[in-house]
């Protein structure tokens, strides 16, 4: 046990003391705000450089009005349709919208001409404006005045409340749950791959630089493998904790700097983007805050840490076995399938099934089977999972970890001493079967 | 008394025999040569002694008790395929290997200082292996095998991969370790390289032991009773021996003792001319080995 501790220490310190670790740990939390900044910058500079796009509109009904936006301006005239098309071809106008005489009950024949393919945003913009106008006109024709229409316009949002067994009511929000499941699932997926790969690289390093023979004359291969897996896992956990602290500090500094306006505005935007009513906005913020305060963060953190480590340990042994079976990282590809495929299934399953319907049959299995449960269960956890399912999933993951480590150790023990021979799946099978 | 007693050891890899029924006694305080061509089974035997792999059958006694994990601390091993952590500092690396062998931290620190000083690389302590020359790294490599002061030191092809200067240093260290009572096992396929070092040898060929014993005894037993003679003579054609060479009036040829004593042969030769050289031809380990292999394959 003492020797495993020595290996853990070495694996941990040799990585944590590297400059690249420090850089990655400090810079990664800054990457996301940086990317967002770049997008914002591009978006603003895009509208600056491309001067306003003018669209010529000919309305034979003399009824429609399109409001100019940041990007598009609408110029109304009575030019001949052929003249309108010519203006587009000559580049005088960005596009040309032709509205022929239409029946309000059956508005057909409205056509847009553009030099480039019209983008979805523009078409949607024009369609919704025209649609709204036609609807208003038709309501007006049937004797309802625009004031009445405005007065009766209502926004509806459904508050979703889950009842737990004790009858306690809790406000939930599908968007918040989705986001939590999505982020947790992806984090675990990325973590397993990133650090699993480090295990593999480490094993290959020891094997190809021939340190391994000296090592195994002092320590049992199983101890060496476990020390490496645990040591690298501790590196990952350290990195993750630093990120949590950093992101927490940065965001609280930012929030403190911009005052309380910032989160409110964000919350408002998240809660409902096209709400105009001040009263509704207030309740939206309150609901969101209530949703967030209703999340059992302790449970979330505990389960996340469990699946974070459990998933890593379950796959870690496989990564070690793959590393032991090859002489160079380039050869590892052929043995990565059994590791990559279940992880990918978990990842795809998260998006296709778990997040869309966390309580379906397939979501249940994805969150129970150890191969996919670290990702699958994290997708479900914020929606609420029955206790027995959680217990079963965790139990199976722990059992799966013992099984995967036991199997991988058999390959590892033999593989690390084999140099220069092409190893195939058949060879691996033989190693698995060999008794000692 | 034997530090290591190997009894009827066998090991197979699939259908290939790696060791068949090998028995060896390695006396305490000796330098033991394990000789044989590549692929004979030497490394397998060494790996079994180091408990890296297990034998299929047979017994190994270390100081009269069955070999077990706590003996790891008493055995040092320099494998044929060797390496170090390239990114790790010399001092850290040595401490790590010493502690892995079960040496307590503070003692390991002292030993690191001792050996670095002894091999003249104390100032390199804080350097990474990456930054060292090959020769320096070889010295560090050697220290990793002896730092925990093993009773039994196993060196697999110790002189291959080391440059001549370092090979000489290691040769001297080996002799010094022997003086202090360490038992050494040197495994090699280059038999001439250990002839001057070894007290005892065992020859392994195709998984089997074909010869073992004290080096002097073996050399005696394989003496062909031939002598190389250099004789100054004016008439080389009159000799009853075919000269191998005739230069500046000196004929060189081999004489076999056939029941005669050396003095009888000499007096006969003296009548033929002036004897300028008379030397017994001793077989090299290589020749003994080839002779044994022939005998073995004919049986």
From TrEMBL, chain A:
One of its GO terms (molecular function) is ABC-type transporter activity. It is a multi-pass membrane protein. The chain crosses the membrane at residues 21-43, 176-194, 214-234, 240-260, 300-323, 335-355, 362-381, 387-409. The keyword Cell membrane applies. Pfam families: ABC2_membrane_3. It comes from the Bacteria. InterPro entries: ABC-2_transporter_component (IPR051449), ABC2_TM (IPR013525). Its main location: membrane. The keyword ATP-binding does not apply. It is found in: Cell membrane. Residues 19-409 form the ABC-2 type transporter transmembrane domain. Keywords: Cell membrane, Membrane, Transmembrane, Transmembrane helix. One of its GO terms (cellular component) is plasma membrane. This is Membrane protein, putative.
From TrEMBL, chain B:
SMART domains: AAA. It comes from the Bacteria. SUPFAM superfamilies: P-loop containing nucleoside triphosphate hydrolases (SSF52540). Residues 4-231 form the ABC transporter domain. Gene3D superfamilies: P-loop containing nucleotide triphosphate hydrolases. The keyword Nucleotide-binding applies. GO terms for molecular function: ATP binding; ATP hydrolysis activity. Keywords: ATP-binding, Nodulation, Nucleotide-binding, Transport. Belongs to the ABC transporter superfamily. This is ABC transporter, ATP-binding protein.
């Amino acid at each position: 046990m003492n020797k495993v501790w020595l290996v853990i220490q070495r694996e941990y310190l040799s990585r944590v003391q590297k400059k690249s670790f420090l850089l990655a740990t400090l810079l990664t939390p800054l990457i996301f705000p940086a990317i967002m900044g770049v997008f914002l910058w591009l978006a603003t500079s895009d509208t600056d450089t491309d001067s306003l796009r003018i669209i010529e509109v000919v309305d034979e009904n003399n009824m429609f009005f399109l409001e100019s936006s940041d990007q598009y301006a609408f110029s109304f005239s009575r030019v001949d349709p052929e003249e309108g098309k010519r203006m587009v071809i000559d580049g005088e106008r960005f596009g040309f919208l032709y509205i022929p005489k239409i029946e309000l009950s059956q508005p057909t024949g409205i056509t847009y001409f553009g030099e480039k393919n019209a983008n979805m945003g523009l078409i949607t913009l024009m369609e919704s404006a025209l649609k709204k106008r036609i609807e208003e006109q038709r309501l007006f024709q049937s004797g309802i005045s625009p004031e009445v229409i405005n007065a009766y316009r209502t926004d509806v949002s459904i508050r979703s409340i889950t009842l737990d067994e004790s009858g306690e009511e809790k406000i939930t929000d599908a968007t918040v749950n989705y986001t939590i499941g999505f982020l947790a699932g992806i984090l675990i997926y990325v973590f397993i791959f990133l650090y699993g790969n480090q295990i593999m690289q480490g094993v290959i390093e020891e094997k190809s630089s021939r340190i391994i023979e000296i090592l195994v004359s002092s320590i049992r291969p199983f101890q060496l493998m476990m020390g490496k897996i645990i040591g690298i896992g501790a590196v990952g956990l350290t990195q993750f904790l630093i990120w949590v602290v950093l992101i927490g500090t940065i965001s609280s500094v930012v929030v403190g700097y911009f005052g309380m306006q910032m989160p409110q505005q964000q919350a408002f935007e998240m809660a409902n983007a096209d709400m105009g009513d001040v009263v509704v906005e207030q309740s939206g913020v309150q609901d969101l805050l209530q949703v967030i305060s209703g999340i059992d963060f302790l449970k979330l953190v505990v389960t996340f840490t469990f699946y974070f480590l459990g998933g890593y340990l379950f796959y870690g042994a496989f990564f070690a076995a793959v590393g032991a079976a090859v002489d160079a990282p380039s050869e590892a590809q052929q043995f990565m399938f059994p590791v990559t495929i279940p992880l990918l299934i978990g990842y795809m399953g998260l998006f296709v099934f778990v997040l869309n319907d966390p309580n379906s049959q397939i979501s249940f299995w994805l969150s129970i089977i150890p191969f996919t449960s670290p990702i699958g269960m994290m997708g479900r956890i914020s929606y609420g999972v029955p206790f027995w399912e959680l217990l079963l999933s965790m139990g199976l993951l722990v059992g799966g970890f013992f099984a995967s480590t036991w199997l991988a150790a058999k390959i590892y023990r033999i593989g690390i001493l084999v140099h220069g021979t092409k190893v195939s799946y058949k060879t691996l099978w033989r190693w698995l079967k060999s008794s000692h | 008394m034997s530090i290591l007693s190997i009894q009827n050891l066998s090991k197979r890899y699939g259908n290939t025999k790696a060791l068949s029924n090998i028995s060896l006694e390695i006396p305490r305080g000796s330098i033991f040569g394990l000789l044989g061509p590549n692929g004979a089974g030497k490394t397998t035997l060494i790996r079994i002694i180091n408990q890296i792999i297990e034998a299929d059958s047979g017994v190994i006694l270390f100081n009269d008790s069955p070999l077990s994990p706590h003996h790891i601390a008493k055995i040092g091993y320099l494998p044929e395929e060797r390496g170090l952590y390239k990114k790790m500092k010399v001092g850290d690396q040595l401490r790590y290997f010493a502690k892995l062998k079960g040496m307590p931290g503070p003692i390991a620190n002292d030993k690191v200082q001792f050996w670095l000083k002894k091999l003249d690389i104390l100032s390199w302590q804080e350097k990474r292996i990456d930054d060292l020359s090959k020769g320096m790294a070889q010295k560090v490599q050697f220290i990793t095998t002896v730092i925990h002061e093993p009773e039994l030191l196993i060196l697999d092809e110790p002189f291959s991969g080391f440059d001549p200067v370092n090979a000489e240093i290691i040769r001297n260290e080996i002799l010094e370790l022997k003086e202090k009572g360490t038992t050494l096992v040197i495994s090699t396929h280059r038999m001439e390289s250990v002839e001057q070092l070894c007290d005892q040898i065992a020859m392994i060929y195709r998984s089997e032991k074909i010869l073992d014993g004290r080096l002097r005894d073996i050399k005696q037993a394989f003496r062909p009773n031939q002598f190389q003679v250099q004789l100054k003579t004016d008439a080389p054609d009159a000799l009853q021996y075919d000269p191998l060479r005739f230069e500046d009036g000196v004929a060189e040829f081999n004489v076999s003792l056939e029941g005669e004593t050396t003095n009888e042969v000499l007096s006969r030769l003296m009548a033929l001319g002036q004897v300028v050289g008379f030397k017994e031809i001793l077989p090299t380990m290589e020749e003994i080995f080839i002779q044994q292999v022939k005998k073995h394959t004919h049986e």
